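Dock 3,4-dihydroxyphenylalanine; give full complex structure.
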Amino acid sequence: MLETLNALESEGLQALEALSASEELPVWYRGYLGRKGRLTDVLRGLGALSAEERPGAGRRANEVKEALETAFHSRQDHIREAELQASIAGGAVDVTLPGRPVAPGHLHLSTRTLRRVREIFAEMGFQVYDSPEVETDEYNFELLNIPAYHPARDMWDTFWINDKVVLRTHTSPGQIRCMRENHPHPIRVILPGKCYRYEQITPRSEHQFYQVEGLAVGHRIRLTDLIGTMQEFASKMYGAGRRMRIRGSYFPFTEPSVEVDMDCILCSGKGCRVCKHTGWLEVAGAGMVHPVVLRNGGYDPEVWSGFAFGMGVERPAMLMHGIDDIRLFYGNDLRFLHQF
Ligand code: DAH
């Protein structure tokens, strides 16, 4: 047995040295070390040996196997290197071969929609104010006139980082940050950004989404300024001549509070499945900034007034493009993303 192994080792090494092209390498490997190779054959024969012979033969068989493996890999490296050098020397690198095309990416539909919203408000003199996505309870709720016991908190359940820190449920906390930073100057800003809510995920609601908040603070700002601004935005975003409707509503941080609707862009107000046969679509929650909120921002409500609004970004994008499932926005499916 030991002689067979020794012979196999020296023959194998010799045969390896004789190889000169990489195509020959797998043939050698199969012949000696493959499942049906010669060494494997010998290993199978170990079982037939006597108990005294077996351990010595087993050890030697492993040594031979390792020696052949090592020699094979070094021979393989050597041959490949030689072939590469030869092909370079022979001018085989074709520099005229066209490169592989790089698939260019493009902006996400949410980003594009947000940019359009920014553009429209920029034309009306609104600056962009960025505020954090991770907020304190104080800014997300308290300073917006939503104390801990307030039932309105149920509308904005969210992800808590700890007892005092949350992923913001809306962009409204940025109102306070912006007021505190700009006081005592007039303000005209939008605050776009990601918001989070602890939601059941359905085709209509996700636990993350974009909002655009708006805030104007100045002297003698009135509800009609808010309506005019919304009207102008809707016409630019959805097409000229949109009709608006203002409904009374409730938000703790505005007084009075309203919901802004516009006529359905799909059926022009006639009534369809998308507008649930009402002819109207919700555009934004809005209102006149609550005196408590103005004061929390450092503005005297006797001297200053302001309006604010908050609107979604995915919903309008869904309407404009006929998308019926909000989960597609975050699914990372290229078949969806490529369409926009
Ligand atoms: N923050 C509200 C929400 O997420 C939306 C909103 C309503 C924002 C009225 C406002 C506002 O600024 O005035 O549901």
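Observed: The pocket of 3,4-dihydroxyphenylalanine is lined by residues 170, 172, 213, 251, 254, 285-287, 308-310 (CB under 6 Å).
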